[in-house]
Design a protein that fits this description.
The protein is α/β, with parallel strands linked by helices. The chain folds into two domains: 252 residues, Rossmann fold, CATH 3.40.50.620; 208 residues, Ribosomal Protein L25, Chain P. 25% of the residues lie in helices and 24% in strands. The chain has a seven-stranded mixed beta sheet with strand order 12-25-26-27-23-24-13. The chain has a seven-stranded mixed beta sheet with strand order 21-18-19-20-14-17-22, with no helix packed on it. Strands 4-5-6-7 form a four-stranded antiparallel beta sheet. A hairpin with a 5-residue loop joins strand 19 and strand 20. Helix 11 packs across helix 12. The protein is elongated. Bound molecules: adenosine-5'-triphosphate (ATP) and magnesium ion.
Length: 557
Amino acid sequence: MENTQGKTNFIRNIVAEDLKEGRCKQVITRFPPEPNGYLHIGHAKSIILNFELADEFDGKTNLRFDDTNPLKESTEYVKSIKEDVKWLGYDWDNMCFASDYFDEMYKRAILLIKKEKAYVCDLTSDQIREYRGTLTEPGTESPYRNRSIDENLSLFSRMQKGEFKDGEKVLRAKIDMSSPNINMRDPILYRISHTEHHNTRDKWCIYPMYDFAHPLEDAIEGVTHSICTLEFEDHRPLYDWIINECEMENRPHQYEFARLNLTNTVMSKRKLKSLVDGNYVDGWDDPRMPTIAGLRRKGYTPEAVRNFCREIGVAKASSIVDERMLEHFVREDLLPKVPRTMAVMKPIKVIITNYPEGKIEMLTAENNLDDPNAGVREIPFSREIYIDSADFMENPPKKYYRLYKGNEVRLKNAYFVKCNEVIKDDDGNVVELHCTYDPETKSGSGFKGRKVKGTIQWVEASNAVPAEFRLYEPLILDEALKESEDENKSFLDFVNPNSLEVLHGFVEPYVKNAKPQDKFQFVRIGFFNVDPKYTENNKLVFNRIVSLKSSFKIDKK
Ligand code: ATP
Ligand code: MG
């Protein structure tokens, strides 16, 4: 059997073993997001794990919306989650909603009451917390714990009919208030919330809690391996208790793995939502966000995200992954795929004084040296071009090989030019460079005369296409956050104020008709994506996906 995950992991080993030993016939997994925000790269790890396990072993994966908290959920989020899972390259067998099972869950709750395994409790949420005890002290039993079955049935039915206010009563499991596992100390199963639900509208005013709903959802769908993140490890005894006591026919098992954390960002929908709501970013799909929608808009590819998730693997131990590792996979994926063209982000005009006025010459440029099939294109050249002001210095340091007065450089795909004169405005700003070119030095002509050490990119002025370049830096200043000892500060105090730089320059005419989400390598600068939000008919906006190089190396074991 092909292992599409590249390497094995403990969950895959369990699945393989269960199939081999006949403990399950077909593996069924699910990806169960709560539709209370957009998916992030951490979710991608879970999506890839669940879908690829099923793919590899001819199983099935459901996309299930865990929509049990109507206060925070919406159809906007349902829509974006579907789009993101598809974009990552996965297709679910069934699309399910926890809310589709509310009737079934209600019945199972009644079964628990009838078995004296659940009771209606009138304690307030503060009291419930107090009675719960601590890690070192046992809890105290609720005075409502020994209500009769009939009283519980009647009260639960009245809860469901809407006779009580939010928070007035809850349904609790009757397990063990002195259990060393706090999750087993009579956890809440149902709460009252007079809130309209995105699916069931006003049908219900009681909603099941995650710990009650989740195992039932899994069992109803016939999930065999219910994979979740480590923080649910202590909930597993409760998961098993619910499956048992609710007498579910299918008996799914829960397995936990470490969630993905990345440097220089935050990875929780709640925190991401506060960045959106606080206008720190321009929406869930801001390219600085670690959301799937943000990464897509920035220009990341599904292949890169998948390769990254496969490489980090699935383990039991928590860790923080360097975001540069994700960038490494983006670079690796884009390098052979996208055309190489020229752009100047901070233009400065160059006049080639010995080049005939009015003449436009077409030069040939390779589209991508890493892709033999990418072919060549024609680029115009004339007496007036733009170069990037970053490639010129008035007072260069030693070993500066780009342009300065008296120095000669190669214009990529074109000629050698030498700078003779620097033109300034009244304020002393450099506005124009006067250069001469050497016709003998045309690229591809085999010129062997002298050598120059610097090669710079350029764009012919009369055909240059104006463009906006949006350059992104990490959103959260990790080091400062780590070092801060001020407990009153939140991650919002460490949002990088310089996470976006906007520049206006030019791209070569080849790029003129680019469509949103088209990707380019701008030579010597980086990989760029046509921004789908700000690009208009006559306005090209590029997001920098990633720079060309990084000092970061990944271990190839
Ligand atoms: P968040 O705190 O971001 O809201 P969550 O766990 O509450 O995360 P869910 O919508 O419940 O979000 O998550 C759906 C699935 O994705 C769950 O199985 C969850 O364990 C998994 N998941 C969430 N975050 C990560 C992460 N950082 N790494 C791996 N898996 C994750
Ligand atoms: Mg959550």
